Structure formats: C-alpha cells, structure tokens
Amino acid sequence: YHVASQVIGKLTATGTDGPGRSRITYGEQAVYDEAAGGWRLGNGHLDVIARGSEVPEVTEAAAFLRTDVRPQDVMTEKQQPFDLSFREIVERGERYPQSARWKLLRHYHITYPLSVLLLVMLGVPFVLKRRHRGTLVGMGIAMLLCVGYLTVDVIVRDMGLAGFLPPVVASWLPVILAGSLSVVLFDTLET
How far apart are alpha carbons 10 and 23 in whole angstroms? Predict the structure, then answer.
C-alpha cells in the first residue's frame, strides 16, 4: 500500500463462498471507492477453486472487490499496539468482532502499563534484602525476574493471537502471576 497515492500496488484477497470454494481475487493498482464500498482493480481477475483442489474451476475478470477493508485499515494493520490509540483499538475490535488480535490488544493496552509497576514491585524486595548477598546480586536477580516476566508475556500473548488461549486470559495471565509473586515477595520484606 502506497500511503501518498493511496493505491495498493499488487492485491491478493482470499475468501470462501457458500459451497466452501476458495475465491482468490488478484489485482494491480487497486484504488478504494468509498461510495461503492470496495476497491477498483486494474488487471483484476478472480479464481474460484473447489475444496480439495488446487486448480481453478472458474477464472474470470474482476474490476471491483467489494470489502469492508478501508485504506486506514490497511495502514494500521502492521502498526505496533501502542502506535494506535485505545479508541482506535476498540473501534477495530467492534468492526472485526471475530478477530482475537483486537480483543487481545484492547486488554494489552491496559496491562502493559501495569506490568511496569509489577516489575518494580518484583525487583524491590531483592534489592532491599541485604542479608546474605549484596545489593548487586539482588539487582541481578531482579533483572532476571524482569526478563522472565517479559518472556512469559510474549509467549502467552502469542498463544492468544494463535488461538490457543482466549485473548483476555492471554493479556491478564502474566500480570496476575507477577502480581501474586510480588505480593508474596513484599510480604517477606523485613520492616
């Protein structure tokens, strides 16, 4: 997608029809037509492929692709979660309710700032305990805990995006685990 010209250089869109056949639309120099609700295609064609086959049973010219995917959706698809505002994430979640990505991002937008506080809470007990080890060792342990937290966060988030975990669980599980551990560690501090 070329942002300045708002043209998709090469477009490939896939979907299925009622009988379960794959419908693959190809085109060049696709331009969005808001009034018509889709993309006008140059050199476009449509292949219809039966289930279980790799050879198109129908190939026809296609000058238009009706879809609800707009230019702003194409532009934001590859952006990082915090490049979008919370409102933009909620709008996309309402627009694509079956997409786990937007549900997960909505919750992740809330849990990410909490994770910063949790990482501080996880590290402080190790830095403040001076009994049998020095402050430097405590800081090293705190840093390892932070790396462990971030690793678990990435793994669980990817599992949520892949559909192995519900988006809400994938967003909140690392926060709940780290929060529980930080409460236990703070309880062991001598005052």
Answer: 17
